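User: Fold this; tokens only.

Assistant: Input:
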Amino acid sequence: MSRGRWMGPARGPVAVAVGEGPWEAFGIGLGRLGYRLLVVGEADPGPALDAEGLVEDLTLVGHGRGGRLATAYAAARPERMKRLVLIAPEGIAAPPRPPPPEPESRGLVGSVMARLPWFRWRLAAAVALVAPPPPPQEAEHRRLGRDDVPVVAIWAGSDEVVPLRALGDLAAWNRMAKHEVIEGAGHDLMATHGERLVETLRGILREDERRLD
């Protein structure tokens, strides 16, 4: 049974989309380039690939949290990878912490307690224990570089979730990775810049195809 949703033509090279999406505009654009897109959502792509019986080399595309999942799969199965495309990916730099609520939003008691140093320390410690940030995927990205898996990273210039400094971290871990920045785009660039994403990839995909031929 299929674990994903297909978009695009019935035949052609396969791209697998992992993450938040929305993937509609991106899938339509890739379809014009002759690609079939299998959307698996925010899940390990392995079961979907096995269910579909895909054995060909894959273009794996990860957006946001899906970037972490796609990177993990690509690093574990480099022999299956044609390329890894990361769009505003998590798993490289820690996202900025949200600011604490303003005193007036806490109520009188909350406002007074929030000013006590011991309370703020205990609260921060509790949050860290409940939801520790996942570690960066430095080892995985270095492995992809050693295994010569082509990596393309597309960043949003005004991303409020994934800081742009992640570009520098990834460049240090994998010097062969290619980078593109879409200025003015936020983390929701899949919805706001779907066509631009495909146009950005068009030249890269054609260049890679010529190199691999």
